[in-house]
Amino acid sequence: MAGEPSVGELVKQASEQLSDLVKTEMRTAQAEMMQKGKRAGKGGGMLGAAAAVGYVGLIGVWASVAAALAIPLDVWLAVLIATVLFLAVAGVLALLGRAQLKRAVPPKPERAIDGVRSDVHEIKERVHR
C-alpha cells in the first residue's frame, strides 16, 4: 500500500474540496441574485414610470366621464358618480394585485440551490461506494 494516501490525507483533501465546492456555490448564488436584482430594479423603475403616466391618463378619463355625465345631470352628481366608479375599479384592482402577491414566491437563487442539491447527492453516492 505504499504510495496510497493515508486516511488523514484523504480527509484533508475531502475537506479542501468541500470548502472549494461551497465557495463556488456561494459565488454562483451571489452572481444569480445580483443579476435578478438588476432586472428587478429596471423592471420596477419602468413599472413606476408606467404607473405615473397611466395615472395622468386616468385623470383625463375621469374628467371625460364626469363631463359626459354632466350633460344630463348636475355637475356635482356627475363628478360623484365618476369618482365612485373609479374608486370601485381601484378596489377590484387592489384585491387582484394582493392575491397575485400572495401567490408570488420569494426570490431565491434557484440555480445555486439546484447545484448544491446535485453536489450533495453526488457526495452521498460517492460515500456509499
Task: Walk me through the structure.
With 129 residues, this protein is mainly alpha-helical. The chain is 86% helix and 0% strand. It is built from three helices and no strands. It has helices at 7-69, 75-103, 110-128. α1 (7-69) runs antiparallel to α3. The protein is rod-shaped, with a radius of gyration of 30 Å. The two termini are 20 Å apart. The mean pLDDT is 86.
Number of strands: 0
Roughly what is the average pLDDT, rounded to an integer?
Answer: 86
User: How many strands, which pairing sense, and closed or not: the largest β-sheet?
Assistant: none
Please count the helical segments: 3
Q: Unreliable segments (pLDDT under 50, ≥5 consecutive)?
A: none
Percentage of residues in strands: under 5%
Global geometry: rod-shaped
Structural class: mainly alpha
Using only C-alpha atoms, the radius of gyration works out to 30 Å
Helix fraction bin: over 70%
